[in-house]
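Cross-posting from the modeling subforum.

Setting up a comparison between two proteins and wanted a second pair of eyes on the formatting. Protein 1 (sequence, then structure tokens):
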Amino acid sequence: MLSDHIPGWETVPEALREREQWVCWRADDADDSSEGVFLTPIDPATGERATFDDEMTWGSFEDAYTAATASEMDVNGLAFYPTREDPFTGVVLGSCRDPKTGDLDDWAQTVIETLDSYTEVVSGGQSIRIIVAGQPPSWTSGPIKICDAEFHIPITGEQLSSTAATITERTAALRAVYKAWKGATDPAETAATLSAVDVQEFGGLPSEPGVDVDLSDTTVIERAQYGPASDVFRRLWSGSSAGYASQTEADVAFCSQLAYWTGGDGEQIERLVRQSDRYRSRWVRLVSEDVLYDERTIEQALELIDDYYDPRAAN
């Protein structure tokens, strides 16, 4: 058992420890011609393989920790399974650290400072993993890899010195990193671009706040399902584009309804779309050099709205 891969109890952020989304992992030989190993997720209760789509194969942090430190369990570490319902995203910066000296490449230091959230050294010492709360674009670009739902994230608990010990909300920063890095070939030049931009402006979602609505996601969904145009909302929520010329037109209509109920809050609209059956990979792809599909769609939806739900008037 490679016990040095198992994190100490207090070194893992509480925001992760408190969720029952933990598995163990075992280092197995890759099953193809590629070099290296595959980190197989293991159910801490049974020792059998765990899967991202079966929560019965996960457990609490205590379950996974106890299993991993038991001599009879053949595993090498612990991993966390993010879901579409939670905010967590892993960002891996590959081959950016000298394992002997701890020195970081300049481009990696820039990304770490931009994301400014819990940061740890990956097993082996050559790469860095940052855990943030935020809705990510889905991409792998050069040395940067995004891991969210459907990926298990190995956790070492080896916090990088002089970095945040807690997980923070960094959606805008994630988007800024994505836009700066997508298609980039020169890490140093790209890092310089990232350093020069206003992260909130470069990576932020469109918003045009109307009335200060301040409803939870659950409340927005409930009121939209039973409010004006509820039949249309339900169809759009379920992923149907019936009655519209294209999926894009239906996406704009859906975001317009969400804009009404959220007071034009772009970040809440984005979260709600991800919870619906309209969400698909295209939602977080670039449609121009600096604009993602969701940003363009939400902006178009906000242009159609001049009236917002007012909870004070409804009471």
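Protein 2 (same layout):
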Amino acid sequence: MQPLNHTEQVVTLQAIRARCAHELHRVTLFAPALCHVRRGSKVVQFADYHEVARADSLIVFPAGKEISIANRPAQGEYASDIIYIPQRFLSQFRARYPAPFTAEPAVKQASLCVPFDAHTRQMWDSLLNTLNDNAPQQLQEHQLQGVLLALQLAGNAGLLLRERHDPVSAQVQGLIALAPAHDWQVAEMAAHLHMGSSTLRRRLAAEGQHFRHLLENARMANALYEVQSSGRSIGEIAYRNGYACASRFAARFLQHFGLSPRALRGAMRDG
């Protein structure tokens, strides 16, 4: 498993395997991501959109959005690869390859699932090879640039390249993700961001967010990654994400995602 830090400036690969169908609600990714389902299908619900991704499509996950997913095996197996993209890299890509003046079709802007055409597939396979081979970071980013360029040329990169409109929330999420076990308080977070507590609360409210909501989402996002991709015990994952009590953590995980950590691991490992 590659350790995931949502503020790390490196490309990260997560491989998901499951034997049983399962659903997860209120999933938030704090780094933009691309996902390809190699076997089975993934149902994605985002805002008013409900889509099904299979091997002939690529899922574009913008950062900071809350989604619901359902992983459905085919002949007893579900397999997908998720690549997390550093925000820094997207900013550099936008500067190097400005969006064309012609507007992309609205349906492509709104859809999370985009066609996995021949050029995108070729670039994607090359990127996976460099990640699986632990190639130097420069080579990984070179291949990632090819994937993004293929998506942009096909008119399928709109959601991924769109700037976030909640910059303070993004900064708060990033700091929490650095140390999810830390006992974060508003005053300390405000000091990190060089503003007063009341200013932080006011700016988060203007973005439609609350500090405690962001804290729980960041912890749950990291916990979900560890439950899916690590061999750590549930108790250790709880502790690493700010919960001293494993049973309380499991209850919050169930309440948040609609599935307990033990049930999720069972779906991934059992036949």
